[in-house]
Amino acid sequence: MARFGRALLVLALLLLATTAAACDDDEGPDCDRMTERQRPESGVTALLADVSASVRGGTGRPDYTAALTAQIEAAVQRGDHVYIGTFDGSSSSVRWTAEKKLTFSFANREKNRELDRAEFTDCLKGWLGEATRSEPEMGGTDVLAGIFTGADAVKDADAGPRTVVVGTDGLSTTGCLDLTGGNAGKQAFVDKLIATCPVRDGWGDRLAGVSLIMAGVGHAGSGQSALATGHVSFLGDLWRRVCETAGAALCDVSTLPVASSGEAGADGLAADPDVPFVPDAGAPDLDEVTSVRTDLLFDTDSAVVRPEGRAALQGLAVRMRTSQVQAVKVIGHADRRATDRHNLQLSKDRAAAVAKVLTDSGISGVTHDGRGERDATCPAEKQSCLQRDRRVDIIATTVEG
């Protein structure tokens, strides 16, 4: 009888332990373990959210956590180390909410790796959500400071891809790219900024080897007036030009709207001056162009996509699948070196290779073509300029609305 009683006691203790474990599971993901181990061969991703007044005023700020979820999932799938931060009007006020969080799963079974990846994703989304609710420390908006600080963080990558993801309205109001002077909306103003700022501020190749992904460009908080379509297009063009000029391996600048978080913004904390635009020149088409440097995608004179290029294209495909993309065209370009015939064939082969990766990643209806050196702008003898002609443009046509 005593033996039976002891058995019941053991059973009761086991049930208590099981219940306690279940309660622990309900407490949320174990995010602390993401800092316990490091993996040098992993890539590095920096996620940055604009918290300046222009995105926080009114009754609803952009939901950058939702807008960047696809990029969070792509980083976790790659097993990257991840930084999460915010920026406002100065490089000195960029703040990191999370630093070098490892998203690689060391589990042996795929089922357990899937559980780890889901937990890591929840952790990153939680940190990013917390970051976007923080208050701006400085007035104004210095988008480029956020981008360059992110690029400095991902330079830690020893072998894997380096990715900077930024949620912002793109309305820069400080620094060399200050848009408040009354010329915003003019194409000639973009040309002037691109000719002046890299020299004045010493950009160099600050984004060399980095894939830059921007979301929400042209869409401020609900407290701001909605921009005309042509003005949104102007901002998209500006940031693509900035990205390419700073030497990024991939420039993916999205001007698609970002849903509102539904949470009230914060008025009157740190002023952000208005950006006056010239009258809208009319609605352009809804094509988004992503330019990818061929040194990220291919070895010299090759049309075989390199692993790091494949990873960048798969990340782009993730965003396309979550957007209203109805058609995608891939155009290959070459510089003026080698013969016309060779350059044309190489550009066609490279466009076909990129199109196949996008198709294999779930994007339907992808077409491709090559233009050789037809659109080249750099003389063959000017080595420092040639890279901009060696690229693949991925043109995504989106559904309006």
UniProtKB/TrEMBL annotation:
It comes from the Bacteria. CDD domains: OmpA_C-like. It is found in: Cell outer membrane. Residues 1-22 form the signal peptide. GO terms for cellular component: cell outer membrane. PROSITE patterns: OMPA_2, PROKAR_LIPOPROTEIN. Pfam families: OmpA. PANTHER family: LIPOPROTEIN YIAD-RELATED, STATOR ELEMENT OF FLAGELLAR MOTOR COMPLEX. This is OmpA-like domain-containing protein. It comes from Actinoplanes missouriensis (strain ATCC 14538 / DSM 43046 / CBS 188.64 / JCM 3121 / NBRC 102363 / NCIMB 12654 / NRRL B-3342 / UNCC 431).
